[in-house]
């Protein structure tokens, strides 16, 4: 069973613990977790849950460019690896396991990213994991409060909100791409767009990794300007920033 933990296209955090319990009840099935945008933002007790494979990347919670992948493989998955018959070469995890024991890699590594990772791991160690998780929750709550204050629908309910990113539906009469264009051109801020059938129907505000409270306040201010410029006036100017400020002041 392959699950995406934090679904960035919709801003939803799937219930990993519950899904994992059903997989474990099956007995033979493996659970493989795409944790690309949840590791570094959410606590994932890999050993406690007995997750078989968990994969992530360097470009999200670890705050550096793409190019490194991190994979945790449990005993049950290694047993499956030994009997697997699918051809594999570059993505042969056994090669990485063998060379990792010798503090090396089976293929040429992106050395610059190793140095970058070393720097960000020191930053994360200084901040502390619990503080990192709390910061992501705080920025998520701040963003969602601001969006609600502007009268915009959130794409997913609070109960399943991802601490990595918030998906927002624009007013019915406004294409989300127009909001993104104004925010980008006037304020040099990149809001992510909707994908496939959601293109133009949602935009997404990221609060994962190297994102600060100031960044969120700035993005909300820019969003307010874009909405007013596009003729949406169902909010009092400054309402989003005020709501965000209240959350930050109280947390």
Helix content: 40-55%
Mean of all residue-level pLDDT scores: 96
The N- and C-terminal alpha carbons lie at a distance of 37 Å
Full CATH superfamily name of the largest domain: Type I PLP-dependent aspartate aminotransferase-like (Major domain)
Structure explained in plain terms:
β4, α2 and β5 form a beta-alpha-beta unit. It contains 9 helices and 9 strands. α6 packs antiparallel against α9. The strands form 3 sheets. Strands 1-4-5-6 form a 4-stranded mixed beta sheet. A 3-stranded antiparallel beta sheet has the order 7-9-8. Strands 2-3 form a two-stranded antiparallel sheet. It is elongated and about 60 Å long. It has 251 residues and is of the alpha/beta class. The chain folds into 2 domains: 126 residues, Aspartate Aminotransferase, domain 2 (3-Layer(aba) Sandwich), CATH 3.40.640.10; 122 residues, Aspartate Aminotransferase, domain 1, CATH 3.90.1150.10.
Concise structural overview:
The chain is of the alpha/beta class. Helix content is 44%, strand content 12%. β2 (6-7) and β3 (12-13) form a beta hairpin.
